[in-house]
Design brief:
6-stranded parallel sheet, two-stranded antiparallel sheet, Pectate Lyase C-like, 7 helices, about 350 residues, 8 strands, alpha/beta
């Protein structure tokens, strides 16, 4: 069976006459033959004739349609894969909390074991209980930064450089303690025992030391300006290079005390007892010295200007000083020609 001419086949399928020019007829036949052969492979595979007319109800498959169907298939596969992934993720998420809960149940007894182990802690607590409890004073000073020292069964404190400003330490037992460089402005030490204490460089501005025991204390380079030392005991105390401006030493006891380069400007020493005290270069400018006791005291390198010693006790006083317009213990005024007034003999 001879194969039909491609041009005739195209005319038979489309129903339109084709009249190509003679020079292009052969090339058209080749192109039509190729065009008609490629789609005919599908029907040939299905057992249908490639020469069936289009009016038979069966059309050749469209390439675009095939491409769309392929894409839809790929998309369907992706959707199925996504659904499977979500399902697996959901299952693993639901299963994951079981592990922590199981771990929690297995580790639950651990805290009980830890809490049931304070056996060594009980031993240490027993050792702490065996120690004597700290007093309120020890707690107060320790919290402020002082160190507690034990000397011959006596408790002393090292408060060097510690800030004890405005603290209430009335009647405190601080004998032999070290307050070198301590900052104590406004601190109340009324009635406190500071015997043999070291107050070198301490700042005690406006501190309350009324009735305090400062016997045999060491006070060098300290600031006691405007301090209240009414009735304080400073017997045998060493006071050097210290400011006591406007300090109140009314009725204070300074028996056998040694005062060197001390500023007592406008200080009040009314009724103070300086029996056998040694005063060297002490500034008493505008100080109040009525009824002061200077029995057997010694004054050296001092200027006593316009001081009122009314009621004072000069018995045994030895003074190497410049006297000027001084009021003597009997109320008499120093004469202009009296270089050594009040009947004193050096």
């Amino acid at each position: 069976m001879t194969e039909r001419d491609p041009i005739e086949r195209l005319e038979a399928s489309d129903g339109l006459p084709i009249e190509p020019s003679p020079e292009f007829a052969e090339e058209l036949r080749i192109m039509l033959d190729l065009r008609l052969r490629m789609p005919d492979q599908g029907p040939a595979a299905s057992g249908t004739s490639s020469t069936e007319p289009t009016g038979s109800g069966k059309q050749r498959p469209d390439r675009l349609q095939t491409l769309v169907l392929g894409l839809l298939g790929v998309l369907a596969c992706l959707v199925l894969a996504l659904v499977a992934f979500i399902a697996v993720w959901a299952l693993t998420k639901n299963d994951s909390p079981e592990a922590p809960t199981q771990a929690a149940t297995t580790t639950a007894p651990v805290p009980d074991e830890e809490t049931s182990e304070p056996v060594p802690d009980e031993e240490t607590s027993d050792s702490f209980e065996a120690e004597p409890p700290r007093s309120d004073l020890e707690t107060l000073l320790s919290d402020a930064g002082c160190r507690t020292l034990q000397q011959d069964a006596a408790t002393t404190f090292d408060c060097s450089g510690v800030d004890l400003s405005d603290m209430l330490l009335d009647d405190a037992s601080l004998a032999g303690s070290n307050f070198t460089g301590a900052r104590m402005p406004g601190t109340s030490l009324a009635g406190a025992d500071l015997s043999n204490a070291v107050l070198n460089g301490a700042w005690l501005y406006a501190a309350n030391l009324a009735g305090a025991n400062l016997s045999r204390a060491e006070i060098v380079g300290a600031d006691l300006n405007e301090a209240s030392m009414v009735g304080a005991d400073l017997s045998e105390t060493t006071i050097r290079d210290t400011f006591l401006t406007e300090a109140d030493l009314t009725n204070a006891t300074l028996r056998e005390a040694a005062l060197t380069d001390v500023i007592l400007y406008e200080a009040d020493l009314t009724g103070a007892d300086l029996t056998s005290a040694l005063l060297t270069r002490v500034d008493l400018t505008f100080a109040t010295v009525r009824e002061v006791v200077l029995r057997n005291a010694k004054m050296s390198q001092m200027d006593l200007i316009q001081l009122d010693f009314t009621g004072a006790d000069f018995t045994g006083l030895r003074a190497a000083a410049n006297w000027f317009l001084v009021t003597c213990p009997d109320g008499s005024t120093q004469g202009e020609q009296d270089t050594i007034p009040c009947g004193l003999n050096n």
